[in-house]
Amino acid sequence: MKRFNFSKFMLIFGLMFIYLPMLILVIYSFNASKLVTVWGGWSIKWYVGLLDNTQLMGSVLRSLEIACYTAIAAVALGTLAAFVLTRVTRFKGRTLFGGLVTAPLVMPEVITGLSLLLLFVAMAQLIGWPQERGIVTIWIAHTTFCAAYVAVVVSARLRELDLSIEEAAMDLGAKPFKVFFLITIPMIAPSLAAGGMMSFALSLDDLVLASFVSGPGSTTLPMEVFSAVRLGVKPEINAVASLILLAVSLVTFLVWYFGRKAEANRKRAIQEAMDQTANESWQQPAAATA
Amino acid sequence: MKMFGRTLLTLSLMGAMVMGAQANDKVLRVYNWSDYIAPDTVKKFEDETGIRVTYDVFDSNETLEARLLAGKSGYDIVVPSNSFLAKQIKAGVYQTLDKSKLPNWKNLNPVLLKNASASDPDNAHAFPYMWGSIGIGFNPAKVKEVLGANAPTNSWDLLFKPENAEKLKACGISFLDSPTEMLPAALHYLGYPVNDKDKAHIAEAEALFMKIRPYVAYFHSSKYISDLANGNICVAVGYSGDVLQAKARAVESGNKVVIDYSIPKEGAGSFYDMVAIPRDAANVDNAYLFMDFLMRPDIIAEVTNSIGYSNANAAATPLVDEAIRNEPGSYPSQVVMATLYAVPDQPIATQRIMTRGWTRVKLGK
Amino acid sequence: MRTFNQQFLRLVPSGRKLVIGIPFIWLFLFFMLPFFLVMKISFSEAALSIPPYSEIYTFAEQKFQLLLDIGNYTLLGEDELYLSAYLGSLKVAALSTLMCLVIGFPMAYAITKTGKETQNVLLLLIMMPTWTAILIRVYAWMGILSNNGLLNGFLMWTGLTDHPIEILNTNTAVYIGVVYAYLPFMVLPLYANLVKHDNSLLEAAQDLGSSNFNNFWKITVPLAKNGIIAGCMLVFIPVVGEFVIPELLGGPETLMIGRVLWQEFFNNRDWPVASALAVVMLLILIVPILLFNRSQAKEMEARG
């Protein structure tokens, strides 16, 4: 009954399609030749060179900083939005709210970027803020569209949750906010973490929004890479890219490892508990007969 | 309730901190082209003056212009090319320079100042930092292989004559992706003034490109540097400094590719990257200090030695590396200088026609 | 005790307002308001000033005048460039969505057929690339597809061709890049949907003698409808406005609206026309966006 399995073949093909280019990129980051298409032997000089490239390293740090702020703010904002979507059932403008929350997910970046820039320009004219565009404006732009992702992820989890625990706590006289922080939040923690990581990644990834709303001293890594790529491929970019790939795969591995460990622990705990009760119930009759 | 208040407070505090970190008297924000300065120029300035410099780079005039026209760009020094500068001056982007604050102005090359004044009457708003011509970069061996020894590499005929372009297709042709620089070259070749506003003439220039369009590999304003050096293409219309950079890269990689640069005898466009101070700059005094610093012969000669572009500083020429100084593409003779024209600034309506025509050329229909 | 309760009750609505208010105000301020601005500017005229457009209203001598310039919209209609850019974007988006579906569906299906542990690993493997910058992944393709890149080297080595095939800077490269970048967004919602399917239906059908292929079309596909719609829209909608991929991998003949918009904004410094382009793009995308929202809502209902 063993025969050619089309879907399995596609899975392997798809994964190869996804990973082969990255593998090639990593190999070429060790290329000694300055011309990226010619193989000139193995070398780590581009990695060493990176350390001296303050401009590039500066943009890496800046991007990480923005991504951190974005992840925090997007999780806070997105969770609030998700909470409103799932728990506050009736209020004026609920449909509009629902639309507003999901729309940034699919809005083409050029439109969001252009419109935010126009907003900041208009605000600077009207109320004098923001005095200048920079990290703060990029942060606002990233938070807005990342919050949408968080809201979708978290509201899916909130819908799955058993309402009865929250209701029971309320019945016992706990204030809604206390319930939210002591009961709801811990229960949705995994999706908060997922949303936070997603926001972090999306913020690190974004070129278009940052290009529109950035200002002095706020060139992000993608902007740096884009302009380097436009001005001709440089071997240093291969090295940066490989480092990013390494960091991401490390994080992915850790997430998987700890997730698995937590799962295993949970299973073991359940197993132990079951064994114990089984033991007890087995011993009891044994004791009784003795 | 309290929790939310606290969250909000922290958030706003975070914002204030980020903004507050930038407020400081001894700062200067510079926005220059990428790879367009010597590695230690900024550091030297910081050491001499104690001013902390935020140095950002852009890769196209358009990027810079969008920032400037949005208002409150936040930069104190910007470096647009002359044709863009002209429009931006009209839009009221720049301050008029107080030349008494620029004692080193005397070092600038008067011929180049005059050329640049086509975009900025009396050089009232900016001074030329680097300049170059828009000529032909080519791979002599490959061109010879295709067209024979008598290939007109010193003339626009090399590309604008379809029979030549057709043969060169085999080894690859690239053009700059810039209607404001390429169409005037065609207008000039056809014998019309470079700032011609006549629609029919512009259409004729467009038709000239259309005829050779099938033979063009791509239109791009920077990719040709590595492609020339790699041997991917054999003829590129490009900026003098970039072509010479390609030449150096080819030598460095040891791949036996030789690159040459020629200013066509019919005449070619020239561009001037101009240093200017935006009207809304916050640190004007520091900006003047930096401008004057850049006019110092020793400083600007170092920049030229590092990036290969020719500066507009007459006093600096003796300090420039001999290899660059004696390169006719970088430091052309008086005779060749006389054939150069500054890339013209066209009214918006004409520019729109040109951009649109250029899009048609690129699409090939 | 009673007064405390009353105080508490009085507090509740304000807390509720706050919970609704914070995200609402944020989204209104930074998402909806900017949109109205884009709309406003699309009715103004380009000008050489800071900012580079004219104000659409004037207030002088106690007269408030509103001037709506529809010239930008008529320009979009008159010049076939814009129409072909919209059509080009829609074509690229539609075709690459289809390709993502054809590759992604079997992948998602195959994942659901593996063990629970393997499923998690495979999902992570598919999600991981989306956490690295898209720019870097597109950049990797630039090196592979170029004339003296690896793919051409490989093809020439195998003797399939004796001269390099031009792939980089053509539409083919754009399709490769788009499918590559968006494939995970197709696989994930499909998996989320497929994994919930009850296998007993399929088994029952098999018992009744239905072929695998038949099962697939008659049972799996209809059941996965919401997942398919969600996945397709997650690919289709952003691709219509895609800028980075066509800019880096596409050639001069790659006409896509994201690129044209960028060009109008940056190269022609014509913010009003760029705004008009954005407004029209959004009008085109409203139907797919609504479709996506509906499928999301249905998916949630099915889950909850």
Automatic annotation (TrEMBL), chain A:
Q: Which UniProt keywords apply?
A: Cell membrane, Membrane, Transmembrane, Transmembrane helix, Transport
This protein's GO cellular component annotations are: plasma membrane
Keyword Cell membrane tagged: yes
Q: Which residues form the ABC transmembrane type-1 domain?
A: 60-256
Location(s) in or outside the cell = Cell membrane
Question: Could you tell me which InterPro entries the record lists for this protein?
Answer: Bact_Polyamine_Transport, MetI-like, MetI-like_sf
| TM spans (from-to) | 9-30, 66-85, 97-124, 136-158, 179-202, 237-258
- The answer, when asked if Transport is one of the entry's keywords, is yes
Q: How does it sit in the membrane?
A: Multi-pass membrane protein
Q: In terms of domain of life, where is this protein from? A: Bacteria
Which terms does the UniProt entry file under GO BP? Answer: transmembrane transport
PROSITE patterns the record matches: ABC_TM1
Q: Which PANTHER family match?
A: PUTRESCINE TRANSPORT SYSTEM PERMEASE PROTEIN POTI (PTHR43848:SF2)
The family this protein is said to belong to: Belongs to the binding-protein-dependent transport system permease family. CysTW subfamily.
Name this protein carries in UniProt: Putrescine/spermidine ABC transporter permease
Organism of this sequence = Pseudomonas moraviensis R28-S
